[in-house]
Specification:
The chain is an alpha+beta fold. It has 2 domains: about 190 residues, no CATH class; about 100 residues, PDZ domain (Pdz3 Domain). Helix content is about 50%, strand content about 20%. Strands 3, 4, 5, 6, 7 and 10 form a 6-stranded antiparallel sheet that branches. Strands 1-2 form a two-stranded antiparallel ribbon. The protein has a two-stranded antiparallel ribbon with strand order 8-9. Helix 1 packs across helix 7 and helix 7 runs antiparallel to helix 8. Belongs to the peptidase M50B family. Keywords: Hydrolase, Membrane, Metalloprotease, Protease, Transmembrane, Transmembrane helix, Zinc.
Length: about 400
């Protein structure tokens, strides 16, 4: 039961924070644009608790705490962008029911630029959340700064073939500065079978070597079995924590978040082009396992409850920041069900000066929904394989 709580509670907490902030982004910008809003829900399904604010918005906490949504008044079309005929019918119904002045309060009759702002506000809220969390940690804890050096080179490894030697100091990978062993591992892991220009310092001289990391499989308690680039070295890292000032914290955190966005985009590009194995895609099971494993690792060895709570809180916040960037990025992809898909439709409407036909919208919505559901099932299958669930189940019957 304790193990179950270690995995379920952190997963619900992390996902609830990330999704709620995402939906609040839509909500705040929609309210600023004067959009009529029916409901804001944390979770799905039956409402456990609900109340109405002064503007008539129903706030609810629902039974399934794995998401949430904001529902605008009149938002009944599956693709959330009705065509011209639907708009005319909706407008007549609103006028008959509430009068002509009420039309401008409805999302679908707002200028296209306002609807685009509302759509992009969710992902932007995720990025802002990550920046704020990172800024706090950069001020309070700091970022590792230092150098990574080669302690050992494994025989017949890519590093050995490239000519790396013990004692080499790794300065840059391609044009990216390396500030410690963590930077080296993160850069190499995404670039299996890609030539990398390493700038090194050897005996006081700057040299360049080209290494091509191999795709290797490994396992750890947090990520399970993973396949990533390895060059076959043991690194030593000498670094210190460099704190940001209150003035520089937000810019520094923005750079960190932007680097995370670039990393996700680079990794996704390699997946789409088949340069990385698709079995590395992870989903909700992987998020849950990571949240639970990080929580357990943070709590282990704590001398008292206060220290354990602090460690768990810190690790959870960092996980929220990372997941928030991922959710924000993925929601900007031009898939009809996602915010990026809505932005694509608004771009068409802005150019053509009319909404996309309803049958095209419905077809796009169905295709996008099928793609997302297929992706979720594929990711769940990968997660079950990555954490050897099928091997465990098979072992029960042998």
């Amino acid at each position: 039961m304790t193990d179950v709580l270690f995995y379920i509670v952190p997963t619900v907490f992390v996902l609830s924070i990330v999704v709620t902030i995402h939906e609040l982004g839509h909500f705040w910008v929609a309210r600023a644009c004067g959009v009529a809003i029916d409901c804001f829900s944390i979770g799905f399904g039956r409402a456990l608790v609900s109340w109405r604010d002064k503007q008539g918005v129903e706030w609810r906490i629902a039974a399934i705490p794995l998401g949430g949504y904001v529902r605008f008044s009149g938002d009944e079309n599956a693709a959330s962008v009705p065509d011209q005929n639907d708009l005319s019918a909706m407008k007549r119904a609103i006028i008959e029911r509430e009068g002509e002045a009420a039309v401008n309060r409805y999302f679908h009759f707002k200028p296209v630029w306002q609807r685009a702002l509302i759509a992009v506000a969710g992902p932007m809220a995720n990025f802002i959340l990550a920046i704020l969390i990172m800024a706090v940690f950069l001020v309070v804890i700091g970022n590792p700064r230092g150098q990574a050096s080669v302690r050992e080179v494994q025989p017949n490894s890519p590093a050995a073939q490239a000519g790396l030697l013990p004692g080499d100091i790794l300065l840059r990978a391609d044009k990216t500065p390396l500030r410690g062993a963590g930077d080296v591992s993160a850069y190499i892991s995404l670039r299996a079978k890609m030539p990398i220009d390493l700038t090194i310092e050897r005996a006081g001289r700057i040299q360049h070597v080209t290494v091509v990391p191999a795709l290797a499989e490994s396992r750890d308690d947090i990520r399970g079995r993973v396949k990533e680039g390895r060059m076959g070295v043991v690194l030593a890292s000498v670094s210190k924590l460099e704190k940001s000032s209150l003035i520089s914290a937000i810019p520094d955190a923005t750079v960190e978040v932007w680097n995370m966005v670039k990393t996700i985009g680079f990794y996704l590009g390699r997946l789409v082009t088949g340069q990385m194995p698709a079995d590395q895609i992870s989903g909700i099971i992987g998020i849950g396992h990571t949240a639970g494993a990080v929580t357990k690792a943070s709590a282990a060895g704590a001398p008292d409850m206060a220290t354990m709570a602090l460690r768990v809180f810190v690790s959870s916040m960092l996980l929220i920041a990372s997941l928030s960037v991922s959710i924000g990025f993925m929601n900007l992809l031009p898939i009809p069900v996602l915010d990026g898909g809505h932005l694509l439709m608004y771009a068409y409407e802005a150019v053509a000066r009319r909404p996309l036909r309803a049958d095209f919208q419905a077809a796009g919505f169905r295709a996008g929904l099928a793609l997302i559901l297929g992706f979720m099932l594929f990711a769940a299958w990968n997660d079950l394989n990555r954490y050897d669930v099928f091997k465990f189940i098979g072992g029960l019957f042998t």
